[in-house]
Structures are given as C-alpha cells and as structure tokens.
Amino acid sequence: MPIKKAKRMSKLKECSLACGLPKSTRMARMGTETAFDMLVKARKLEAQGKHIIHLEIGEPDFDTPKNIREAAKKALDQGYTHYGPAQGMPELRQVIAEKAGAFRKMKFAPEQVVVTPGGKPIMSYAIMALVDDGDEVIYVNPGYPIYESMINFMGGKPIPLPLLEENGFMPDLDYLKKKLSKKTRMLIINTPHNPCGVVFSANYLKDMAKIVEPYENLWVLTDEIYSRITYGAKFETIAKFPGMKDRTIILDGYSKIYAMTGWRAGYGIMHPDLAQEFSRVQTNISSHTTTFVQRACIEALAGSQKAPDDMVKEFHQRRDVIVDGLNSIKGFRCKKPNGAFYAYVNVRKTGYDCRDLADKLLHEAGVACLSGTCFGSYGEGYLRFSYANSIANINEAIKRIKKFIEKK
Ligand SMILES: Cc1ncc(COP(=O)(O)O)c(C=O)c1O
Fold first, then answer.
1. Where are the domains of the chain?
2. Which of 206, 213, 255, 342 could form a disulfide with 261 if both were Cys (CB 3.0 to 4.6 A apart)?
3. Would you say the CB of residue 116 lies under 6 angstroms from ligand 1?
C-alpha cells in the first residue's frame, strides 16, 4: 500500500471507535488513570474465584463518618434536590474559606472558592481556563496521571519535572530553573505526593516560590488533596509565600480525608476573578456539585474531626508495617513516606520490569499493586502499594510477595 494511503488509513483507525464510527482526533491525546484498569483485572480474577489483596486503588477502606452520612440524609428530606449556583452553595463556600484558611494560616474569602464534583475537575478547569495551544506546563513526574493527560488533551506542551530517589523524591530546583521560560504558563505540584509520599517543607516551598515569582504569566496549581494525611511532617502550601497568593490555585477535597471518594466532592481556592472563570467552565460541564452532597460537606468540615483524625492515626500504623515489610523483601527498597497512604518501592534489583512484576504479583501472588509507570515515565523501576487496607491484609500481602520473589 502506498505510504500516503497507509498513513491516512492509520489516522482513520485512530479516530474511529471499534464499531467503525468516527471520534474526534483530540481523543487520541487523552490518557487515563490505569489504576482503574488494574482494579478491573483484579476483579475479573476474583470473579474466577481467586483471592486478591487490593493494594492498588487510592481510596480509604473506611466508611464515610456517620455524622456526614446523616447530614446527607437530612438534606435529602429537607428538599436539597434542586439546582444551585455553579460556584457552589454560599454557606458551604463560607465554611471552606474559614476551615481551609485556618488550616493553612491564610485568609480566604468565599468568593475565592469553587466547589467541584471531586478534586479532580480543578485540574481540567485550570488547564482549560489558563493554558493555550503550545503553552508549556511543568508537572511533577511521577505524578497523578490526569495532569499529563489533560495538558496533552488541551493542546499544552507537557514538561516533566522528575522526582528522583537520589533527591529524596523532591523536584530538583536547579532543574526547575532551567525548564522555566516565557513559554511556561503553569507549574503543577502535589504535596503530600502521590505516589512518592513526600511532603514539601516550608523552606523548600519558599525557595520554589522565589524561583517562580519573576515569571509574571505563570500560574501554580498545587494539588493538596492529601494535605491532612501526614505523619510527623508539617503540611505547608506554596500559596502563602511572597508573590504566590494571587497566582496559586489550591486543589483540595473530601475524597481522601473524609473517606468520601464516591460522593464526588472537592474544591479549588483561587483569585476571585479566576473563580468566576472556573464557574463558567463548570456551568458548561456539570452545572455544579450535587446539592445534598454539598450540605453534607458543610457537616464534614464543621462537625467533629474525630473520625478523620483516627483514620490518619490508623494509616500511620499501617505505613510502618508496610514499609518494614516491603524492605524485608529481597530486591525491594522503600523510603518511609511522611504523607498520603502509598508506599513507593524501588524494585530494580529484583531484575523484573516493573510492569511485569505488577502483573505477576497479581496473577501469581494474588496481590494487586501498580507499576510506577502508571504515574509517568519517571516511575520506571518502581511499584506503588496503597496501604488503605487492614494490617492483617498488609501482612498477608507481604508474605505472598516474599514467597513469590524468593522462589524465582
Ligand atoms: C494526587 C491526587 N489528586 C487528586 C485526586 C482526585 O481526587 P478526587 O477523587 O477528589 O477527584 C487523587 C485521587 O487519587 C490524587 O491522588
């Protein structure tokens, strides 16, 4: 077949669905979250009768606290079932501004808050509202896969900021300096970090802010979804350092700290002018977050914090068990993370490709985890284990992995 025709055919194939009907060319630029693919594989094996320990998915195994569930039920009975403002209910935005501000030792106004269905939409809204075709976006790699997916989808140019073990999984600020230019429109960071578990210190963020500050057209998106899940390390936000307040978008939410992943509730905090743009984007996409869920979110932040605090204490214990266990396996090396609920393990010395190892652990040891490459090219050589599972299951998983590695 002539080259031209072959190219046209392959383009056509890329832009059509299995049923033969066309799809947009831009869909070829959209990535996904492969954690869900692993979950599907694991569930398939379970359906065949295999016992699987789930250490792949990033969601707390706890139930949503009772007071939050009760608030949602009450809101339904009170008729909170109608449309509301795109930006989010004023009474919820008020509570978020107060609580998120007090936690960060900053002052926020309700006009700066946009309530979203999960924290995730803040990523696409930011890129949609602020990044033009060809604009460069620097983002942490390894990192949450949606950053890279949405940069590509919206026509931005993704510039990875590597998180390397030799630097304690902190981005190298000299490297960042070299990558910043007039073409950089956005920097995306994440602390506490998924998958590495590092928490960026105040001094580090202060230095980062100093580097970024001279770039007038640069926005910073800081993903702080794990902000309250730390073990001894103090959480800090880049937003509070000189020159950062107006140009920083804070992403936070309810999924992790209140075990509310399925409720789809999160928020962004930003300059009030940008909040208006985000609201316009939201009007176009989903209108707003479910009304009675927003009422429950008021209770989550304003009510008792005992349940989330206890959950963090439990994660702390599990972290110690899983990290010690993983380090006792031949060829595994895991630095103790001080935030989020993931153990990120260097498995290069096992001699396995990390994708193969994740697959083999699932099929042969009955342990589901993720290859570091699910989080970008710099995840090569690593596995991520979520410790959102009981200590008994974690111990059993370690036993199974050890047996598998030792029989090699
Ligand atoms: C770093 C990071 N940001 C954002 C999210 C998405 O949070 P949500 O479920 O609230 O959309 C996740 C979920 O795993 C995450 O790990």
1. 31-63+307-406, 80-302
2. 255
3. no
* 394's tokens: 């974690």
Superfamily of the domain at 31-63+307-406? Aspartate Aminotransferase, domain 1 (3.90.1150.10)
Ligand 1 lined by 372 (C-beta under 6 Å) = no
Q: With 80 as the cut, is the pLDDT of residue 134 above it?
A: yes
**E strands in 133-253:** 136-141, 157-162, 184-190, 219-223, 248-253
Q: Within 13 A of 320's CA, how many CA atoms are on the CB side?
A: 7
How far, in Å, is the centroid of ligand 1 from the Cα of 146? 9
Report CA(119)–ligand 1 centroid distance (Å).
6
- Lookup: tokens for 207: 């230095």
Average pLDDT, the chain: 95
Instruction: Tell me which amino acid residue 346 is.
Output: N
Task: Give dist(CA 352, CA 374) in Å, integer.
Answer: 16
What's the 225 CA to ligand 1 centre distance in angstroms? Answer: 6
Please write down the HEC assignment for all residues of 103-144: HHCCCCCHHHEEEECCCCHHHHHHHHHHCCCCCEEEEEECCC
Tokens coding 111: 């006009």
Question: How many A from CA of 144 to the centre of ligand 1?
Answer: 8
Kindly state the percentage of the chain with pLDDT values over 90. 92
The top-level CATH class assigned to 80-302 is alpha beta
191 within ligand 1 shell (Cβ under 6 A)? no
**What count of other Cβ atoms lies within 10 Å of the Cβ of residue 26?**
12
